Amino acid sequence: MTTKPFYKELYFQVLVGIVAGIVLGYFYPEFAVKLKPLGDAFIKLIAMIIGPIIFCTIVTGIAGMKDMQELGKVGGKALIYFFAMSFIALAIGLLWGHLVQPGIGFNIDPATLDTTSLIKYTDGAKSVNLSDFVMNIIPSTFVGAFSSGNVLAILLVSILFGYSLSVIGVKGKPVFDLVESISKVFFHNVHLISKLSSIGAFGAITYTIGAYGLASLIPLAKLVIGFYVLLILFVVVVYGIIAKICGLNLFSYLRFIKEELLIILGTGSSSVVLPHIMEKLEQLGCSKSVIALVVPSGYSFNLNGTNLYMTMAIIFIAQATNVDLSISEQIILLVVAMLTSKGAAGVSGAAFVMLTSTLIVLPVVPVAGMVLLLGIHRFVGTGLAIVNLIGNGIATIAVSVWNESFDREMMKNTLENKEI
After folding, report:
1. What DSSP assignment string belongs to 125-148?
2. Is the sign of the CA dihedral 286, 289, 291, 294 positive or negative?
3. What is the CA radius of gyration of the chain?
4. What pLDDT, on a 0 to 100 scale, did the predictor assign at position 43?
5. How far apart are CA 290 and CA 274, in angstroms?
6. Which of 52, 179, 295, 307 is the most buried (most CB within 10 A)?
7. How many Å from the N-terminal Cα to the C-terminal Cα in the chain?
8. What separation in angstroms does the CA of 304 have from each of 27, 138, 213, 389?
9. Are the C-beta atoms of residues 54 and 158 closer than 8 Å to each other?
């Protein structure tokens, strides 16, 4: 098998784009912020085809199931896994905040904070409740699910369409073949757009450094460093244990998805690699039907990085504003966060809205304290997006193993062929 020169590999090109973006953003910040459209354009290109890819993958995955009871089993197992991991992540973030104590010593009076910059987040957060969340899943029209970009709405119409296609049997075969062919076209589009990954990562990272500057991290360095240490420990320990139970070497898996991780590092969004990760998980031996259900739904229900951030950030604000949370209040915090975190979608900005929503429901910790996080949110958002992606891949593998539909031999061959 012929090996491509390293400079032609996508991961190397993206890495070069990130390094170049950091250098340009640091030395020429005024020019760097003007390059933001490069990152935005790349994200929009990927976002343009995410809906159709989710639809085609779910429809072919469900319609291809031999037993429709499997759909309920896979969905049930996925939800059990999602909620268990969400609770674990929220609890660990809470405990880590107490251990690291990043907010101790700030002694800030919430009344002195300028909250005008929070308006766009608090306005959105006030509308987040269980009723609205459920109603937003149901689109006004079939096409509306795709135009809105709501992953859960697309998931709903895709499941209904795939189930109906399966029920009508042979008569639906031409439609099934058509959807499968369309799926191949969209995945080819993904490969074409992926060639622009280095430019997209360059534009996004140079804007971030140019607009916020590395100096913006200094006052809150303890929180940022503590959060990234937590993310690393969570990936290595928690994901490492789950991967081992599944018969997978965590670090081999991380090497396998290194291109996707670098793209997120540059763009700060896990949504841009959703089509890529679905394709790679199939190469790894996961069942297509499991991938079709777990990955898209995981982008709203399995955001472990977001969960870690939410509880640690709330503890930080409480410590910085000298709010002493009782044990009962912290238990309520975990329950509320379990609900509000399910409204986030895989983009880092959504995590800030969900965090604000939690504080509005739990008024003991002042919402005004969110101002303290505005400067560093973009930087920590990248880390939580990376962990969210890794977590969704591990979740898909775990559910495939649990469902006894994981091809270990295929995994072994794929990872061996991808070793550098």
Report:
1. HHT--HHHHHHHHS-SSTTHHHHH
2. negative
3. 21
4. 78
5. 15
6. 307
7. 13
8. 35, 25, 27, 9
9. yes
Nearest to 106 by CA among 412, 330, 373, 353: 373
The amino acid present at 324, given as its one-letter code, is: D
- Predicted pLDDT of residue 420: 45
- Do 21 and 204 touch, CB atoms closer than 8 A? yes
The dihedral formed by the CA atoms of 204, 206, 211 and 214, expressed in degrees to the nearest 10: 120
Q: CB of 300 within 8 A of CB of 343? A: yes
Kindly give the residue spans of alpha helices, DSSP state H, lying in 69-172.
Answer: 69-100, 119-126, 130-137, 144-148, 151-167
DSSP letter, residue 369: G
Give the up-direction half-sphere exposure of residue 332: CA atoms within 13 A in the CB hemisphere.
13
| Average of per-residue pLDDT across 21-43 | 86
Asked if residue 1 has pLDDT above 70, the reply is no
SS (H, E, C) 247-301: CCCHHHHHHHCHHHHHHHHHHCECHHHHHHHHHHHHHCCCCHHHHHHHHHHHHHH
225 compared with 148, residue with greater pLDDT: 225
Measure the CA–CA gap between 350 and 272, rounded to whole angstroms: 15
Q: How far apart are CA 240 and CA 237, in angstroms?
A: 5
- When pLDDT is averaged across residues 8-25 and rounded to a whole number, the result is 84
The residues, ordered by sequence, that sit 6+ positions from 55 with a Cβ below 8 Å of its Cβ are 146, 154, 157, 158, 161, 179
Domains, the chain? 6-416 (1.10.3860.10)
**Mean pLDDT to the nearest integer, 327-352:** 70
Q: What pLDDT, in 10s, does the model give residues 58-96?
A: 888 887 776 667 777 888 898 899 989 999 999 999 999
What pLDDT is attached to residue 49? 82
Q: Residue 108 in 3-state DSSP?
A: coil
- Please check the confidence at residue 376 and state whether its pLDDT lies above 90: no
Q: How far is CA 190 from CA 50, 94, 145, in A?
A: 9, 38, 21
Whether residue 347 has pLDDT greater than 50: no
pLDDT at 119: 58
